[in-house]
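Entry under discussion copied across for reference:
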Amino acid sequence: MARSRFTDTTQQLPLSALPASAMRAVLKHGYTADDLKRDVVSGFLVGVIALPLAMALSIAVGAPPQQGLYTTVVAGFIAALLGGSRLQVVGPTAAFIVVLAPLQTRFGLGGLFVAGLLAGFILIGIALLRLGKLIEFIPFPVTTGFTAGIACVIAVLQLKDLLGLKLLTTPEHFTDRLTAMWAARSTMNPTELLVGTVTLAILLIPRIPSKWLSLPAWVQRVPAPLVALPAGALLAVLLSEFHIGAHVDTIGTRFQSIIDGVTVTGIPRVAPHLLLPWQAPGSDGLPIGLSLSTLRALLPTAFTIAMLAAIESLLSAVVADGMARTRHDPDSELLALGIANVVTPFFGGIPATGAIARTASNYRFGGRSPVASMMHAATVLLAIVALAPALQFLPMSSLAALLLLVAWNMSELEHFIHTLKVAPRSDVAVLLTCFFLTVVFDMVIAVTAGVLLASLLFMRRMSVTTQGKVIREGLPGTLPDGVILYDISGPLFFGAAERAMGAIRAIGEHVKVVIFRLERVTHVDVTGLVALETVLDELGRHGIKVILVGVPPDAVKMFSKAGLVPVAGKLAICGTLESAFELLGARIHRYRRTHAGPIRLHLLNRHRRSVSRTNRPVE
């Protein structure tokens, strides 16, 4: 019988089982030579895609291109080995650009390393506290809004290299950078624009509908960057060679490193090596150091990096589960991601998270286990050692074109527009708020404001579902004079308690007994309890007796602690409405013996059951 590819996550794994849960599941269900072959092929192809992306993303945040490659190698391998998703591919992603670019401007490369280290520890803490499932509670309009905002920022920032602009300064904030690019519009380089445009056109060829351009199947399987970037480099060389005065900025002309006293252009042919993150240079060129003031300054950004990494990585894992029909363990995935981000800065890497596009490519190329992701890291390492001299010829405008396409894919414009069309106005408000705040300010403000706004709107919607009203029909008997039944339905929480209890305050003076029917109350929090206690006190001061019917199971203990227990002549608690009516019948008989005047009470069920010991009469 075929073995299931699903990993059972219905029960929480013990902490000892979190590391490498996906790899353990693969080995448990059997791993064959054919599986290894598919994983190796997929890992190689994903590595080819990741190679230029890692360099482009590193450059976009202001770091040398090799730092992105080191991130892919170290973080990609560790997260795959220790993670909870079979297909997840981890590395630098476009989502980090809006957070890391200002960080690099203020604190330099050392700031990137130390902030990534702190973010790793935060992620480990989230995993050990088993909080991975909480990421699911972030509303869809929030994630869609800030993701589209990030994509917009990334796309606009690529105009600098695509147009070949020469900025006098590199401002920290998006709006300031936009102003600086506009001020430098006269420095636009037509040659770089041509190279970038040609690169982008080649990247878009696979997206041309088949009715317009039919490509052979083997051509469609070739990753577009593998063709577009070398073509852009060749075009740049030809233009520089045969066009007098033409200049195209490349990785080699933009970046240099000093290795053993020798200046190396582009990417050094050096594998990731051990270093101390706090010894890396800050914005002033000196080691950033490790002090309490430095940690205090970097901690807010580190928290943002950790939250964004968690959201991005778990969303990517969910996408992988949908394609491969597997299940990931979120806590295991976050633990692996945290360990990867702790280790990576010691090898010169920047923060990393799950990459949705590379993860999806891993599945399409045939990858079925973490071995494919580890192979992708090994492929990038091989490229550093073997192809570093050739990578210096890649034009900056070609890498900008690649990031433009990444930003377009990330924006998910169709989903954004569809949400605007069909979503309720409250969700549209959250979506646009997150988008606007991400673009104009930053992602921290956007997510904070978005979650807060979504929570407030949700509470308002929930409060509408909570109702309190007097019921006179559909009862198991006829209420006697002076008795009313007040029915409460929905959650009795802080956003709805006052609304639910408001109508009872308008009862007439003739009322002697109030039955509170709580059978349809789904939840009671302390605010709901206080509101109920306040109403009971008011009724008690007017000499009105109270019967509580159907107290929710999760509120029984809270009611007992609060002193809401049966009190003869004041308060009774019944399990069902029928028992409350029987209790009223016992009270009416005693009332007749001690008071003048008849009070009629007609019960549908003449066969009275014995009153529960917990049901004390209202006298």
Summary: Residues 1-10, 586-619 have pLDDT under 50 and may be disordered. Residues 292-324 form the longest helix (33 residues). The two ends are 70 Å apart (CA to CA).
